[in-house]
């Protein structure tokens, strides 16, 4: 029974995608590459503002005492990201894959 439902679901999804691709209507929620490209080009024209990566790279690496840090992006859960556990065994700063914050282990000798 599950295989029969999966096959029908795949057939329906394929039919829906063919219908949407052939439609000339403006579909809310579907962004074409042309819109994305023009938006990015417009955003990149203003050279007086720093890019998000430039801004995050200005934040110095955060020193922690343990070997593992849990990054949530922000103390407010609504502004953060999924929790990311980062191992700090290497000498260079470890980078969070979600927000780009860098962490380094503070060695006490």
Automatic annotation (TrEMBL):
Superkingdom to which the source organism belongs: Eukaryota
InterPro entries: Znf_CHCC
GO CC terms, sorted: mitochondrion
Alphabetical GO biological process terms: mitochondrial electron transport, NADH to ubiquinone
UniProt cross-references to Pfam families, sorted A to Z: zf-CHCC
Domain Zinc finger CHCC-type span(s) in chain numbering: 66-103
Protein name in the entry: NADH-ubiquinone oxidoreductase-like protein
Organism the protein comes from: Perilla frutescens var. hirtella (Perilla citriodora)
